[in-house]
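Structure in, sequence out. Go:
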């Protein structure tokens, strides 16, 4: 599977490493080359400097052939914008977007953007631990 990941923070680098180890063709896109230090030396995918909200950067990352796109930067606005571009302009079959604000997540889901909120997920996990 061809996967493009926008954001090479801790989550992006970990996801890229996991998918690469499974044999997927992974391209990680980030606006800061220093972020790529998080990728292991055995990473066989592509690390590309660029902005996931820019169509030309996405094309260089192989978005036109991508089976999946992950928007997982620290910025909710950038993530949803890139997710919409991937889904509606490049017709990527699977688009997943990280949204920190739980209220926005619900809105984006109604707009057809598959979004998850680590804020909500972690709060639910903590609540479940309390109830154990």
């Amino acid at each position: 599977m061809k996967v493009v990941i926008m954001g090479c923070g801790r989550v992006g680098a970990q996801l890229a490493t996991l998918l690469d180890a499974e044999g997927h063709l992974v391209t990680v896109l980030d606006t800061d080359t220093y972020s790529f230090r998080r990728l292991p030396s055995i990473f066989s995918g592509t690390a590309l400097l660029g902005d996931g909200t820019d169509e030309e950067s996405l094309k260089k990352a192989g978005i036109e052939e991508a089976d999946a796109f992950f928007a997982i930067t620290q910025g909710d606005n950038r993530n949803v914008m890139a997710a919409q571009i991937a889904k509606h302009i490049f017709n990527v079959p699977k688009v997943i977007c990280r949204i920190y604000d739980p209220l926005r997540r619900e809105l984006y889901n109604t707009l057809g953007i598959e979004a998850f909120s680590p804020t909500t997920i972690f709060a639910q996990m903590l609540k479940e631990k309390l109830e154990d």
